[in-house]
Amino acid sequence: MSENNCKDTLSKVYDFLADDLDEVQKSQVINHLTDCEDCKREYAIESKISKLLTSSSQDAQFNFAAKIQSRLQSEN
Ligand SMILES: [Zn+2]
Hints:
It contains five helices and no strands.
Protein backbone atom coordinates (compact mmCIF):
# COMPACT_ATOMS: atom_id res chain seq x y z
CA MET A 1 0.00 0.00 0.00
CA SER A 2 1.39 3.37 -0.97
CA GLU A 3 1.13 6.32 1.33
CA ASN A 4 -0.81 8.11 -1.37
CA ASN A 5 -3.37 5.38 -1.35
CA CYS A 6 -3.67 5.77 2.41
CA LYS A 7 -4.19 9.51 2.18
CA ASP A 8 -6.58 9.15 -0.71
CA THR A 9 -8.59 6.61 1.20
CA LEU A 10 -8.67 8.69 4.33
CA SER A 11 -9.74 11.73 2.34
CA LYS A 12 -12.69 9.69 1.15
CA VAL A 13 -13.62 8.69 4.66
CA TYR A 14 -15.59 11.92 5.07
CA ASP A 15 -17.69 11.18 2.04
CA PHE A 16 -17.94 7.59 3.11
CA LEU A 17 -19.31 8.65 6.46
CA ALA A 18 -21.66 11.09 4.79
CA ASP A 19 -22.84 8.25 2.58
CA ASP A 20 -21.76 10.33 -0.39
CA LEU A 21 -19.79 7.69 -2.27
CA ASP A 22 -20.97 5.30 -4.91
CA GLU A 23 -20.78 1.59 -4.20
CA VAL A 24 -17.43 1.20 -5.99
CA GLN A 25 -15.81 3.98 -3.99
CA LYS A 26 -17.26 2.63 -0.77
CA SER A 27 -15.77 -0.76 -1.56
CA GLN A 28 -12.39 0.82 -2.26
CA VAL A 29 -12.41 2.61 1.08
CA ILE A 30 -13.50 -0.46 2.99
CA ASN A 31 -11.06 -2.70 1.14
CA HIS A 32 -8.14 -0.41 1.88
CA LEU A 33 -9.07 -0.03 5.51
CA THR A 34 -9.47 -3.73 6.00
CA ASP A 35 -6.16 -4.45 4.23
CA CYS A 36 -4.01 -1.66 5.59
CA GLU A 37 -2.67 -2.33 9.06
CA ASP A 38 -1.27 1.20 9.28
CA CYS A 39 -4.61 2.84 8.71
CA LYS A 40 -6.38 0.42 10.97
CA ARG A 41 -3.92 0.99 13.77
CA GLU A 42 -3.58 4.72 13.27
CA TYR A 43 -7.26 5.48 13.07
CA ALA A 44 -8.67 2.51 14.95
CA ILE A 45 -10.89 2.25 11.95
CA GLU A 46 -11.76 -1.39 11.93
CA SER A 47 -14.15 -1.23 14.83
CA LYS A 48 -15.48 2.10 13.62
CA ILE A 49 -16.22 0.76 10.17
CA SER A 50 -17.93 -2.33 11.42
CA LYS A 51 -19.88 -0.17 13.81
CA LEU A 52 -20.87 2.18 11.01
CA LEU A 53 -21.91 -0.69 8.84
CA THR A 54 -24.18 -2.04 11.53
CA SER A 55 -25.28 1.22 13.11
CA SER A 56 -27.32 4.11 11.79
CA SER A 57 -26.11 6.45 14.50
CA GLN A 58 -25.58 9.83 12.83
CA ASP A 59 -23.97 11.11 15.99
CA ALA A 60 -21.28 8.44 15.96
CA GLN A 61 -20.57 9.14 12.32
CA PHE A 62 -20.20 12.84 12.96
CA ASN A 63 -17.83 12.31 15.88
CA PHE A 64 -15.71 9.91 13.88
CA ALA A 65 -15.50 12.30 10.92
CA ALA A 66 -14.47 15.15 13.20
CA LYS A 67 -11.76 13.02 14.75
CA ILE A 68 -10.34 12.01 11.37
CA GLN A 69 -10.49 15.57 10.12
CA SER A 70 -8.53 16.96 13.05
CA ARG A 71 -5.98 14.18 12.58
CA LEU A 72 -5.51 14.99 8.90
CA GLN A 73 -5.25 18.71 9.55
CA SER A 74 -2.53 18.17 12.12
CA GLU A 75 -0.51 16.34 9.46
CA ASN A 76 -0.61 19.20 6.96
ZN1 LIG B 1 -3.60 2.77 4.56
